[in-house]
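FAQ: What does the model actually see?

It sees only this:
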Amino acid sequence: MARTIGPVCKLCRREGEKLFLKGARCLSPKCAIERRGYAPGQHGKTGQFKRGRSRSTDYLMQLREKQKARRIYGVMERQFRRYFSAALRSKGLTGATLLAMLERRLDNVVYRLGFATSRAQARQLVRHGHIDLNGVRHDVPSHVLKPGDEITIHPSSAKLAYFKNLGQELAENTAPPPRWLSFDSTQLSGRVLAAPTREDIDVKLNEQLIVEYYSR
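And it is asked to produce this:
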């Protein structure tokens, strides 16, 4: 499975905003955007490149929005293009459908339920077999869930200290999950109630620019 193995804080700096790729660190003074709020690389501070000026073109805006979406959800280019093709064949607005599909990925749902502090950590929990889908161990983070699917902690994993402490933390946390999900903190289980609408997705993205990028 392809994945980003380099320093992810550089990805936030490249996009010029927090993508919340490292969980609690992004909310602390150690966040790279707080310490070095400029693009990585030799010419990051000046914004100038060896060949020509740095200009904001329509293509550049579309590319940056597409790259930002990929990095937020941890999806590689080939897989992201497949999601877009599926959204293009579906009814409704292509951009909103694309984001709804990304939100319903298993690793993202695990993150939204509070089982992990970042999508990368949620992906690791799934890959290591700690998550059950409809009562069966499931280790494919990219699996797109549908309404009615239930997510629970695998029985053997529930005995681990991480999940025991997590249950106490989530019980004290009053922040509700997104309205398209339900969550039971006592059983450490969640359920997909419906497909999320664009209003349910709090990710700062202009999905229309992504649609324009792939429609060139």
